[in-house]
Specification:
With 284 residues, this protein is of the alpha/beta class. The protein is built from eight helices and nine strands. The strands form two sheets. The protein has a seven-stranded mixed beta sheet with strand order 3-4-5-6-7-8-9, sandwiched between helices. It has a two-stranded antiparallel sheet with strand order 1-2. InterPro entries: AcCoA_carboxyl_beta, Acetyl_CoA_COase_Trfase_b_su, ClpP/crotonase-like_dom_sf, COA_CT_N.
């Protein structure tokens, strides 16, 4: 018997059905601007008229960051199990199978190793299309293995967060990933290997409470929602009106939680600039 019913609250769209990249001939941004999807893709999925950054996944970020989109994927076939035999509106094992079929992803994160502006880089990127980018055991394990690779090969590490938080279907197994990934990042810091965290829309829950905010450099995309609980939850809990722009990248930058905001067109250059500065290399 499911312990909650999404349809009773008027929620009928499954999380895994919400697409990162819009499909079809046209895309309408939240401000009402309409753009051809081919033009949107050429513009790195940024609406040219209002600069709105459309949600994208690991495929698109790898294309942006790796030279000629050439990279080697690590731990590509790692998949989640169902240790708790969890069931809500459907069995977790069935949900995993369905979302794998729909997204062609194995889980909510992928790791690539390749060159960015000629320098070796390890990039782990979350995919919101896979159960809301939720952080389960596989997400934590793949981040840990990516960090191990960075340490072994002395390669800088970039982690791109896009997540609704912990994966409830894995309960404590999911929450353990907060400590696991944080400990691994401490090892990376001890080896003096740079870690850059990019927070995209949305970066929330246990993701924010662990690796997303532990970067040597913490970057946000313009307009991204970044926080622990969402604005509606915070407002309902506190009973107070929230400041304008609460939990956006711009708000967090103003209050010292981010180092800077990077437009998607400048992301590759900005990341490599800061890696050069951290490593005292000649700036390219």
């Amino acid at each position: 018997m499911a312990w909650f019913k999404r349809k009773e609250k008027g929620i009928t769209t499954a999380t895994e059905d919400k697409k990162d990249v819009p499909k079809g001939l046209w895309y309408k941004s939240p401000t009402g601007k309409i753009v051809d999807t081919d033009e949107l893709a050429r513009n790195l999925w940024v609406s040219p008229e209002d600069d709105f950054h459309v949600r994208i996944g690991s495929k698109e970020y790898f294309e942006i960051l790796f030279d000629n989109n050439e990279f080697k994927e690590l731990d590509a076939n790692l998949t989640s199990k169902d240790p708790l035999k969890f069931e809500d509106t459907k069995k977790y094992s069935d949900r995993l199978k369905d979302v794998m079929d729909k997204t062609k992803l194995k889980d909510a994160i992928r790791t690539g190793v390749g060159k960015s502006k000629g320098k070796e880089l390890v990039v782990s990127c979350m995919d919101f299309a896979f159960i809301g980018g939720s952080m389960g055991a596989v997400v934590g394990e793949k981040i840990a293995r990516a960090i191990d690779y960075s340490i072994k090969n002395k390669v800088p590490f970039v982690l791109i967060s896009k997540s609704g938080g912990a994966r409830m279907m894995e309960a404590a197994y999911s929450l353990m990933q907060l400590a696991k990934t944080s400990a691994k990042l401490a090892q990376l810091a001890e080896e003096k290997i740079p870690y850059i965290s990019l927070c995209t829309d949305p970066t929330t829950g246990g993701t924010t409470a662990s690796y997303a905010m532990l970067g040597d450099i913490n970057i946000g995309e313009p307009g991204a929602l970044i926080g622990f609980a969402g604005p509606r939850i915070v407002r309902d809990t506190t009973g107070k009106d929230l400041p304008e722009g609460f939990q956006t990248s711009e708000f967090l930058l103003e209050h010292g939680f981010l180092d800077f905001i990077a437009h998607r067109k400048e992301l590759k250059n900005k990341i490599n600039l800061y890696l050069d500065l951290i490593q005292n290399q000649e700036i390219r």
